[in-house]
């Protein structure tokens, strides 16, 4: 979007005074409160200027949402934090994102703050919490508690013990530990320096001397701690943050942290790890004192979950059940986030909200307390304390960037889960034991240093008795339930009834087919005469005996290749009882990245079977590949056999067969036969005749042009896909082989313990390298079912528990799995390396792996130009792994990148059966949108149009919209595209996202050319969209809708219907993929 300068809106600002600007417009003691008042007066955005510095303060949700976009903005270490760098250096909190130590420390320490690490911290957290509780229990009735003081003691001692095995022993001192005093002094001076004029700063000689003395004390204490740990021979046995910092290696750089940076990290954790949490607990206790109705609900939950016996320490699982206590803490953070500001800067000049200019390197501060009071998000009671703001229902409807107490994105607080677990544990135990008494009728006064706290908050407590408690719903926990992970027994039917069970699949990529075979094999074990087939095999001839189970996916909203005929048959007109007698159920595989077509085909199959008289005997299931697919399938699958048995009036009682490994492994010396997938997919050898880089050296990514010779007798069409038989990378193969103590040259022979279908080479000698490179997927995300198997083979209690907490059936385990495994794309080998005590045998590992799949690429050439060669355009994936384990390399893209001229790639041409092809009539206009490698099919289209024109055919006009980052970096096929334009084959429109201040994408160029676009649409043009499904495709579709509305004066509903008609008539065609 382009906005002329005269349309930009000035940012509000209080009246400036000469020389000092806005220096005295806010209270220097509590600047956040002054900013909050200015926000109420001036609105969701305003700016402040003091000599040498300008800061824009933002608090409105819509603006913050945009500033939270990490592709446009990064964290700025703002002025007060730059002063804190005097003693925290390039620690995690005060480091610049570009600094190498930030990345190294973040990668090394991240696993220690994950959900699965929290259970290990529980005993140490309880140790310190018990010291606080014992102190309060021993108070005389009229003694008052310094709430912020005791919370500071608690949280400092907790992070000291959990992080560094160091005891500050704050509850055994009359005064605060000297470290605390030095820290408070240093933070206060850092804040003060940010408010002084330069001439004032020069005069603060005594302040500077005291500041240096405080910094020296903190440095000396921490350096001593590091020296003692390094000198201790038992260092390797410690499992705390310091141990990981001393021994950890960043897998990306191969480097560890030096002692100076470790000092900075320790000081950072000691400050951030206790200062913010102590403020959170202090504010939470204040709010509970002032809201007896909320306090009563919290008491009721604590009584229900923890019970009356305070001698029994709460378990990790019990703390996670304190849902309302957690809501109280979150609501306290909403109104008074203890770290009330964070600052960002733009990578380049840009505009937000279509009206405010953001200069490059300018400072934009997010005022979190006012963001959390935005009534457009939080409702009319936004200024009031109401924990229901964090109920499940409220959270489900809240936009992502409305609640930011821990910062933003990759620079958000690494210890968030640690802090929340500690606060929930402590607050829960306080409420279990004590009545809270507001004996002074305290009025809130906020104190600000680096963080916020309620100044001068005191209270009294008295013990609770059983008479005070509501124990009606309390059930004493015998042992917290954990999922059983005994080796899954093999069931055998006691009744071999031989009822027909037909399992049909619609599958392009293999997932649905694999699930279908699983269901078929389980069916046989339960006495069914089960068979598996594709949906197309049974178009028009579904059986009425037994049951039909359908497992199918969608392909851009259309049926998979082997389900197109079946779906076409289902959509025909037929009598309402045409399928009477057919009993069925459906499980759909999909990906929510394609939101508009998610589950389109499974829903179509389900509804049309029922519409034509078939009986649904079990609910349709949905699996989302962008989420916990395995968990969703297992949830559906658990009820399948019981429902089938009831519907078919069968006794499906089973017995347990003797359990043994599916495979056994034998070391041999013979050689091995070739890759079987070559034959099964009908692949043939293609000789590489060209493999060149399309991007320049300045580009951060690689894109390859790979050209292959087509064997005699083979052919293809523009718009076809080329399926490549992939190989796992040598690095990944060696990594797996090493974990199981093989060399890659070791030859083995596999023997199978049953007659189930397998993709592995049975009874044949095979090198470990070939087995792992050619047969199995090594980089798929570990499923919860697989993690249960890992736990089964783990004896070490901490590691076993860590695995168990990822694979339970409860909501907490599902969340841990989503955050700790699914979101980070962790594989089985990742988890095996993280849990070295797991003694998983190689045969069990193989049994969990799926067959390696071919990868499909749009062919980027036309046989009319050269029938003996075809080309593909390959975006190489080679980037830091989300899991934190080294580098993630795309299986096929790196296999292709490594090939040289003359090498052989095994591949096959796949006719996608789609309509994503050139029209038969060469005069039909074309509109092509393809950023990045989405250009591939359009290069083939343009080659074809050029050949038709050279042969004397009349060709229609075409528009090509191509986008990339920079014209001097990744403008692939630039010379060819410009040559097509000079030859009047197409009109080229380019969008470069990293050149000008405002990012420009293909949809922006499409809107610019809307007049020409509409002219071609009115002339019968076919629209083609190729590329990213999650962002680009929806944005392009929205732009076409917008063009339609402008040209016709119609509304959004009519625009949607118009686009659907274009799609139905094959004039709006997409070939998209997820990221």
From TrEMBL:
The keyword Cytoplasm does not apply. It catalyses: hydrogen sulfide + 3 NADP(+) + 3 H2O = sulfite + 3 NADPH + 4 H(+); an organic molecule + reduced [NADPH--hemoprotein reductase] + O2 = an alcohol + oxidized [NADPH--hemoprotein reductase] + H2O + H(+); 2 oxidized [cytochrome P450] + NADPH = 2 reduced [cytochrome P450] + NADP(+) + H(+). Residues 501-641 form the Flavodoxin-like domain. This is Bifunctional cytochrome P450/NADPH--P450 reductase. It comes from the Bacteria. Keywords: Electron transport, FAD, Flavoprotein, FMN, Heme, Iron, Metal-binding, Monooxygenase, NADP, Oxidoreductase, Transport. InterPro entries: Bifunctional_P450_P450_red, CysJ-like_FAD-binding, Cyt_P450, Cyt_P450_CS, Cyt_P450_sf, FAD-bd_FR_type, Flavdoxin-like, Flavodoxin/NO_synth.
């Amino acid at each position: 979007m382009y906005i002329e300068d005269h349309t930009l809106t000035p940012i509000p600002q209080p009246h400036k005074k000469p020389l000092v600007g806005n220096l005295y417009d806010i209270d220097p003691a509590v600047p956040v409160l002054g900013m909050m008042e200015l926000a109420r007066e001036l609105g969701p955005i305003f700016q402040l200027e003091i000599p040498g510095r300008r800061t824009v303060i933002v608090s409105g949700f819509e603006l913050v949402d945009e500033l939270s976009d990490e592709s446009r903005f990064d964290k700025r270490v703002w002025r007060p934090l730059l002063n804190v760098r005097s003693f925290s250096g390039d620690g995690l909190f005060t480091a610049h994102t570009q600094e190498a130590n930030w990345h190294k420390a973040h990668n090394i320490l991240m696993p220690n703050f994950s959900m699965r690490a929290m259970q290990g911290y529980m005993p140490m957290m309880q140790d310190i919490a018990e010291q606080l509780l014992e102190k309060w229990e021993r108070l005389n009735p009229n003694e008052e508690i310094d709430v912020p003081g005791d919370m500071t003691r608690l949280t400092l001692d907790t992070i000291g013990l959990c992080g560094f095995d160091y005891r500050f022993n704050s509850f055994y001192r009359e005064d605060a530990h000297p470290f605390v005093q030095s820290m408070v002094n240093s933070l206060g001076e850092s804040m003060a320096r940010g408010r002084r004029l330069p001439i004032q700063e020069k005069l603060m000689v005594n302040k500077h001397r005291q500041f240096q003395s405080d910094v020296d004390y903190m440095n000396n204490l921490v350096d001593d701690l590091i020296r003692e740990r390094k000198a201790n021979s038992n260092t390797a046995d410690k499992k705390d943050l310091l141990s990981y910092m001393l021994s950890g290696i960043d897998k990306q750089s191969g480097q560890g942290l030096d002692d100076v940076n470790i000092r900075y990290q320790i000081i950072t954790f000691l400050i951030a790890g206790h200062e913010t949490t102590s403020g959170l607990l202090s504010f939470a206790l204040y709010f509970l004192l002032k809201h007896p109705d909320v306090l009563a609900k919290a008491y009721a939950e604590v009584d229900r979950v923890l019970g009356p016996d305070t001698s029994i320490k709460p378990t990790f699982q019990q703390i996670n059940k304190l849902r309302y206590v957690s809501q109280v803490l979150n609501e306290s953070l909403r109104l008074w986030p203890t770290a009330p500001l964070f600052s960002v800067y733009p990578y380049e000049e840009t505009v937000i909200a279509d009206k405010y200019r953001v200069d490059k390197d300018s400072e934009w501060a997010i005022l979190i307390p006012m963001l959390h009071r935005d009534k457009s998000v939080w409702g009319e009671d936004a200024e009031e304390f109401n924990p229901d703001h964090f109920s499940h229902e409220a959270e489900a409807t809240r936009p992502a960037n409305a609640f930011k107490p821990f910062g933003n994105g990759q620079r958000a607080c690494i210890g968030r889960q640690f802090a929340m677990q500690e606060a929930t544990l402590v607050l829960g135990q306080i409420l279990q034991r004590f009545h809270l008494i507001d004996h002074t009728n305290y009025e809130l006064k906020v104190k600000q240093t680096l963080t916020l706290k309620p100044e001068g908050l005191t209270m009294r407590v008295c013990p609770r008795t059983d008479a005070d408690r509501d124990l009606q719903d309390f059930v004493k926990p015998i042992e917290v339930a954990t999922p059983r992970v005994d080796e899954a027994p093999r069931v055998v039917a006691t009744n071999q009834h031989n009822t027909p069970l037909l399992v049909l699949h619609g599958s392009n990529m293999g997932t649905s087919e694999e699930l279908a075979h699983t269901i078929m094999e389980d069916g046989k074990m339960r006495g069914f005469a089960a068979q598996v087939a594709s949906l197309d095999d049974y178009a028009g001839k579904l059986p009425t005996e037994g049951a039909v189970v359908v497992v199918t996916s969608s392909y851009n909203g259309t049926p998979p290749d082997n389900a197109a005929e079946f779906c076409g048959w289902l959509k025909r007109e037929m009598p309402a009882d045409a399928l009477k007698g057919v009993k069925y159920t459906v499980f759909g595989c999909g990906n929510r990245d394609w939101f508009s077509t998610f589950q389109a085909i499974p829903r179509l199959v389900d509804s049309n079977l029922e519409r034509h008289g078939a009986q649904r005997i079990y609910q349709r299931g949905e699996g989302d590949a962008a989420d916990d697919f395995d968990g969703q399938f297992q949830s559906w699958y658990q009820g399948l056999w019981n429902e089938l048995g009831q519907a078919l009036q069968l006794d499906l009682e089973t017995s347990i067969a003797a359990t043994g490994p599916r495979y056994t492994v034998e070391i041999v010396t013979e050689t091995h036969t070739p890759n079987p997938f070559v034959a099964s997919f009908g692949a043939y050898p293609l000789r590489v005749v060209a493999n060149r880089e399309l991007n320049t050296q300045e580009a951060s990514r690689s894109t390859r042009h790979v050209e292959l010779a087509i064997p005699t007798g083979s052919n293809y069409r523009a718009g076809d896909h080329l399926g490549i038989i992939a190989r796992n990378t040598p690095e990944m193969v060696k990594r797996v082989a090493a974990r199981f103590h093989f060399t890659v040259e070791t030859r083995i022979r596999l023997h199978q313990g049953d007659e189930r279908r397998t993709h592995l080479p049975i009874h044949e000698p095979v090198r470990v390298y070939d087995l792992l490179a050619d047969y199995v997927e090594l980089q798929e995300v570990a499923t919860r079912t697989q993690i249960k198997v890992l736990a089964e083979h783990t004896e070490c209690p901490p590691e076993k528990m860590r695995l168990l907490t990822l694979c339970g059936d409860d909501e907490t385990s599902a969340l841990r799995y989503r955050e700790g495994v699914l979101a980070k794309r962790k594989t089985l080998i990742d988890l095996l390396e993280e849990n070295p005590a797991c003694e998983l045998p190689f045969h069990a590992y193989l049994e969990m792996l799926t067959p390696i799949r071919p990868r499909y690429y749009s062919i980027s050439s036309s046989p009319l130009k050269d029938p003996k060669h075809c080309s593909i355009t390959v975006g190489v994936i080679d980037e830091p792994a989300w899991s934190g384990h080294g580098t993630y390399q795309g299986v096929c893209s790196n296999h292709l990148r490594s090939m040289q001229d003359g090498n052989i790639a095994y591949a096959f041409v796949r006719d996608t059966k789609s309509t994503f092809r050139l029209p038969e009539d060469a005069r039909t206009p074309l509109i092509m949108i393809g950023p990045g490698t989405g250009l591939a099919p359009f290069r083939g289209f343009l080659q074809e149009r050029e050949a038709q024109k050279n042969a004397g055919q009349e060709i229609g006009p075409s528009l090509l919209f191509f986008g990339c980052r920079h014209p001097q970096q990744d403008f692939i096929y630039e010379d060819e595209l410009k040559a097509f334009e000079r030859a009047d084959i197409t009109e080229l429109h380019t969008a470069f996202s990293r050149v000008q201040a405002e990012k420009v994408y293909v949809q922006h160029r499409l809107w610019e050319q809307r007049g020409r676009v509409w002219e071609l649409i009115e002339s019968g043009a076919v629209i083609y969209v190729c590329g990213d499904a999650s962002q680009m495709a929806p944005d392009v579709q929205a732009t076409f809708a917008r063009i339609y509305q402008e040209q016709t004066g119609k509304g959004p509903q009519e625009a949607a219907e118009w686009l659907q008609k274009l799609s139905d008539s094959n004039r709006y065609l997409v070939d998209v993929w997820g990221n």
